[in-house]
Amino acid sequence: MAVAAVVLAAGESTRMGRPKALLDWRGRTLLQHQIDTLTEVGCDPVIVVLGARAHQIRARTQCDAPCRIAENAAYRSGRASSLRIGALALADDVEAVLIASIDGPSSLATTRAVIEAWRASAASIVVPRFEGRNGHPALFDGALLAELRELQESTLGLKAVRTAHADATQFVDCDDPWIVLNMNTPEEYEQARASQGGSSPSGS
Questions:
Q1: In this predicted model, what pLDDT tens digit does every residue of 114-173 receive, in sequence order?
Q2: Is the Cβ–Cβ distance between 75 and 51 less than 8 Å?
Q3: How far apart, in whole angstroms, are the C-alpha atoms of residue 89 and residue 27?
């Protein structure tokens, strides 16, 4: 069963002071890490939604098939607009969609665990957790694609879909602290890099 992916990388990174997508993450940019991970686990297609500084980010990103870039001219209107654009870029018959945030660099092992949990269950949504905290990437069954295409910031965006399908959500406990990283400021980014300890978690 094919799984697609949408990487949200359209934000202005105001508090960071430079594009999060281009931050170094173990020798690659953060965006390249996301693309490479999702491609390696077999996601097809991988839709990268860019907005702020799209030209600069494109120039430093390798996005060959199955990766495609979509641009959100209305990125200032909020995250929901990028999610809509990503969902609209997918085929109607997509079986599942992984939604990854640019600053949630999960490992290969975690990403595979989320996909396998969906394949082995009847869950509509699968969410990885680390020490009780929800992380990324979350997976949404293809049956929810129409809802993802209608997301609005005014109606709580993705949170509304998560709430509506709470009873059909499965949580996967993972030994992967990267999935709950918060990298909005230079200080948080440096703390995240320090937490890597020069090596990646098992399976990444």
A1: 999 999 999 999 999 999 999 999 999 999 999 999 999 999 999 999 999 999 999 999
A2: yes
A3: 29
CATH number, domain at 160?
Answer: 3.90.550.10
Confirm if 190 and 183 have CB atoms less than 8 A apart: no
Q: Omega before 66 cis (within 30°)?
A: yes
Q: What is the pLDDT of residues 67-111, one digit of tens each?
A: 999 999 999 999 999 999 999 999 999 999 999 999 888 889 999
Q: Burial code of 68-93, b = ≥16 C-beta within 10 A, e = fewer?
A: ebbebeebeebbbbbbbbbbebbeee
Number of independent structural domains in the chain: 1
